[in-house]
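User: Structure tokens for both sequences below?

Assistant:
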Amino acid sequence: MTRRLPRLRIRVTDWPRRALVLTDTPDPDCTDCEGEGGIEHDYGDYETGEYAGTDWEPCTCWDDTRRWVVLPLPRHPRGLRRDDDRDPWAANGYSNEPPF
């Protein structure tokens, strides 16, 4: 039996708080999930037989609970947070000037 080495990646997470985490990734050479990390199963409604949704079953080549916090990230002060991408200096938040 060969020992599986973790394939680690740095990601940003927002839960339970913003942080950079080191997380495991699916095996790209897995024959079961073909590197996707899981297998999707479509299912239908019992009465009509129509498509009702998709279930996702995680593959054994990947443990999505393996993660380590590398660096907690600070929250921006409330005055610097932006909820949208509008230009704050334009009339009504939108600019009618062509870009030069």
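Moving on to the next sequence.
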Amino acid sequence: MNMQAFSRRTGVSAHTLRYYEKIGLLGQVQRNPSGHRIYTDKDFTWISFILRLKDTGMPLEGILQYAKLRAQGASTCATRQSLLEAHRQQLIDHIQTQQQHLAALEAKIELYQNGEVA
């Protein structure tokens, strides 16, 4: 699919797709004979994973590190796993903190609902 269709499908702007390609996050995107980018289902799967990592708070530097390891092949599987496990722990910690914040907000709202706070 062309860049416009891929951008619509992924929700990632063409500018961002070009940037990701430039910094090595998307690797070598195929091109048609006229030089226009052609994205595949494999590219869609990869960008979806990138977006998932971003949505879970992984910094772009960490995603780039993962992408570079991925490009090196199977010999980096253990390192990539460790990287994802560390990110998972950070995400678990963040979720626990957010749950504590939510509980505090709910307690305050309950005070208002009960007329206990002016």
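User: Anything stand out in the second?

Assistant: DSSP finds five helices and two strands in the chain.
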